[in-house]
Amino acid sequence: MKPRTDSGHPKLVMITSPKPSAPEPPAAVGSKPKAAGPGAAGTLELRIGGMHCASCVSRVEEALAAVPGVREASVNLATERARVRLEGPVPLETLARAVREAGYEARLSEGAEADAAEQAARAAELGVLTRRFAVAALLGLPVVVLGNFGMLPPLAAIPMALQNGVQLLLATPVVLWAGWPFVRGSAIALRRRTADMNLLIGLGTLTAYLYSAVATLAPGALRGAGQQPHVYFDTAVVIVALILLGRLLEARARARTSQAMRRLLDLRPRSARRMQADGSIEEVPLDQVHPGDTLLVRPGEKVPVDGVILEGRSSLDRSLLTGESMPVEVGPGDAVTGATVNLTGAFRMRAERVGADSMLMQIVRLVQEAQGGKAEVARFADRVAAVFVPVVISIAIAAFVLWFDLGPAPRLTQALLKAVAVLIIACPCALGLATPTALMVGTGRGAELGVLIRGPEALESARGIGIVVFDKTGTLTRGKPELNEIVPAVGVDGSRLLRLAAAAEQQSEHPLAAAVVRGAHARALSLPEPEDFTAIAGRGVVALIEGRAAIVGSAALMAEQGVDLGALEAERTRLESLGRTVFAVAENGQPLGLLAVADTLKPDAPAALDALRRAGLEVWMITGDNARTAAAVAAAAGIPPERVLSEVLPGGKRDQIAQLQAGGRRVAMVGDGINDAPALAQADLGIAMGGGTDIAMEASGITLVRGDLAGVALALRLARRTLQVIRQNLFWAFAYNTLGIPIAAGALYPLLRAGGPLGPLWGWEGTLHPMLASVAMALSSVSVVTSSLRLRSFR
Length: 795
Prior knowledge:
It contains 28 helices and 28 strands. It is an alpha+beta fold. Strands 16-28-27-26-17-24-25 form a seven-stranded mixed β-sheet, with helices on both faces. The protein has a six-stranded antiparallel β-sheet with strand order 8-7-9-15-10-13, with no helix packed on it. A six-stranded antiparallel β-sheet has the order 18-23-22-21-20-19. Strand 24 (618-622), helix 22 (627-637) and strand 25 form a beta-alpha-beta unit. Helix 4 packs parallel to helix 8, helix 17 (494-505) packs across helix 18 and helix 26 packs antiparallel against helix 28. The longest helix has 39 residues, at 111-149. The chain starts with 11 loop residues before the first strand and ends in a 6-residue tail after the last helix.
């Protein structure tokens, strides 16, 4: 079973369930490896399921890298993909087995089946997490109430033994079913001799639960040892519920990531009209089109594949791929791109690049390669946990041994309580809250201000941004052509000029003609219906208006019709030097004047860009438009010529961003079109305009809902502020543990015990009961939540 590419998808292996669906003999990959990009021969892409943290990424990378024949493995947590470089043929089942043995689900799938399997796996993951969190929250709430208010009226009337029994009954499904992923993760970490947050969560939860179960089911054993049977079920259920909430939010964010790929693929037409040898036309599915086929494209249809026009002329709307609103006139010999829209005339074309080789599929590949990242803030706690967990366990064991050997009677009980106190105070409640609470408050405040932040990766990316690159069309400009200048000939009224031109253009389907008609309507001009109308592809129109011959079009059309522009020629040159499209208008063979159409700068653009410059950021512009038009827009926006990148194709935009990053600078990209998606994903921070395409927004970390350019500076400040709060939360979460763990272990007891050098401090001998450890842990959570709520006042 070898990976196929007949559907046009990049070769992928889906890993989603514990066992292969059928016991087929493994096929080797790598003998004919499909490159994931130029020069990447021998590279295989895998989709991985079940990862939650940076430690998961490390385990999968290590497992894949240990397979013979694998040169290198790199795993991306955000996109749940692994890129594996192969030195030679490697059985797919061998790779899948390595992933399964690392503790992650594995079932091989490929092609269109991989997309369906991935969607099903994401939906299943969200469903399971939602149910687990719902059970933990619903059953955990009464446990928290009994655990904290059971000694107050009216609950005090219920016997404590009965209260503890009810807590045990409710906490058991929370810990052993809702919290099963943590328990299972702990077992896997111990088996592989690694440490991660799962191990810390599992140890803390199980310790609190098992000790409380003993106190509930065998309270006499503790009383016989001189201890009161306190329970800590509330600690266990709170840990499970809060960590599940964080993972649920993470899974929802990741579920939206793959939608960009599917929507890009949906842009392709489903079929093509193929010319047969006998002149007949056959409609065939797109995947049956081959290089060299002759295709017919009618007005209003999408160009099926990349190729070259053989016969006919038309105007193409390339905005889906280039982002440019101005249509492009094409004719024989001109290249056309799949998924662009044919506006006016029919033409025949020769297919050249199909399937995975088409420009649209190259954009898909570029987004796949660049989208997502390993945000520092998202993996910080896991990196610390790799050291923190073994240290906590070592301290708990050391505390047990020291108190059992040297502590006061009853030694076993004292030793057990100290070890439990260490593990309870080390439970990562605050760590679990540090990121999701700040993220929820910060993103909620951002939504109120029209700024949507996708997750921690976007927050981390906003740190240290030094360059902001703006797309031109639809971002800095309005995104559609408008009539912006009327130049009448000597002795000609401007309204008469515009009225004649708009009347002639009324029946034209060309977007530039529509701009002229809108301009006339905006000036309340009444337009007569043309008595005769002829559109000349790529030139303009000729019409009969109220008995007079009207010509509207290019200078070339005027020359063909024998019209001499005379003094207007200098004005035409001036307007075109400003990047505008110029129409000449003639009546009965005499020139009446010129009309200039262009995509105009947004009114708020200069002020918004100036604010970024005052903040110390470099402002650049990138566009697929020609250098002359780009220079005119840049000058109006106040962008220096040396920071203008023009005539850049979609793949080139991504490369330009990468070149800016190569200088060690962190780059933010602001765009709105499909063509911007690879660059938005490649940039350290992608910012999409809310009025742009869904693809651009899903390839970005931040979306400006209102499409206001001033929101760029606002988004950067909000992201940095939210990240700052997350880091403060993590600091205080660890600070509580750092201070509390030695106290829980009894480090102060030799100083404060009765007869010690300092003596009891207000009766306190320097030990920390597990109940107080639970209170201290709760206070750390309260401080984290309170810290996060500061973001509600962000201005």
